[in-house]
Write a structure and sequence with these properties.
- By secondary structure, the chain is an alpha+beta fold.
- The chain has a domain of about 110 residues: Jelly Rolls (Sandwich).
- The protein is about 30% helix and about 25% strand.
- It has seven helices and eleven strands.
- A six-stranded antiparallel beta sheet has the order 1-2-3-10-5-8, with helices on one face. Strands 7-6-9 form a three-stranded antiparallel beta sheet, with no helix packed on it. A two-stranded antiparallel ribbon has the order 4-11.
- A hairpin with a 2-residue loop joins β6 and β7.
- The longest helix is centred in the first third of the chain and has 20 residues.
- The radius of gyration is 19 Å and the shape is elongated.
- The two termini are about 30 Å apart.
- The structure holds zinc ion.
- Zinc ion (ZN) binds next to α3.
């Protein structure tokens, strides 16, 4: 199984540099667990970063510099998450979820606070933040047409089970789709298997059709 749709180079580089927000890091770590090609790219970026650090010329250190560095490390630890090293060890028997994700949901999706978003669509947040992007799981019954919608901010979707098709292509396990405020689409879940996606959303979805506008209150995830 190989993913056909990957995160952009920019996102992978930011991941390697440790500068992604937590929700996006969770999605990228989950993709890396399933995608050897992106894993290799991230590890190359990390080694280039290490080389660059090696090239930095030493400068005279002032008194107290160590304290400043240690204080910054403390800040970094508080502000940044430790995404576990990618490993494709399945935990969830029903969904075969990769390790970075199961670590965030206590090993199973069953106890998540699922809520009804619309006909045959359920959503559960997996990490709560007061600001910044939101991350959660979306379950869509086979063959369901998600209402046509646009986006008021960036959105990253990664398929964990089943698949869906929209105007940009077909997405199955491991695939990542990036949407920005220029994309208006109507994903349709593939037939046969429930589609489960990990979604990172910055803005709110903006429905464009009549029915979609009617269900808009439910789409605010
Ligand atoms: Zn990839």
């Amino acid at each position: 199984m190989t993913a056909h749709h990957h995160p952009s180079d920019d996102i992978l580089l930011s991941y390697a540099a440790g500068s992604l927000d937590e929700p996006t890091s969770i999605l990228i770590a989950t993709h890396l667990a399933l995608c050897p090609a992106c894993r290799e790219q991230v590890s190359k970026a990390e080694s280039v970063g290490g080389e660059l650090l090696n090239d930095v010329k030493p400068v005279a250190i002032q008194d107290g510099a160590l304290d400043v560095v240690l204080a910054r490390l403390d800040e970094g630890e508080r502000g940044q998450i430790n995404v576990p090293a990618p490993a494709a060890v399945p935990h969830d028997n029903d969904l075969n979820l990769p390790r970075p994700l199961t670590d965030y949901i206590d090993g199973s999706t069953k106890s998540l606070p699922w809520r009804w978003l619309g006909p045959s669509v359920h959503y559960a947040p997996i990490a709560s933040h007061t600001k910044g992007p939101k991350v959660g799981l979306l379950r869509i019954a086979p063959g369901t047409r998600v209402p046509m919608h646009g986006h008021s901010g960036n959105e990253l979707t990664m398929v964990l089970a089943g698949g869906y098709t929209d105007g940009t292509g077909n997405y199955t396990r491991g695939d990542v789709e990036a949407a920005d405020d220029g994309l208006v689409h109507q994903p349709i879940a593939d037939a046969g298997e429930e589609c489960v996606c990990l979604v990172v959303t910055e803005g709110v979805l903006q429905p464009t059709g009549l029915i979609a506008r009617l269900v808009q209150p439910f789409l605010r995830i």
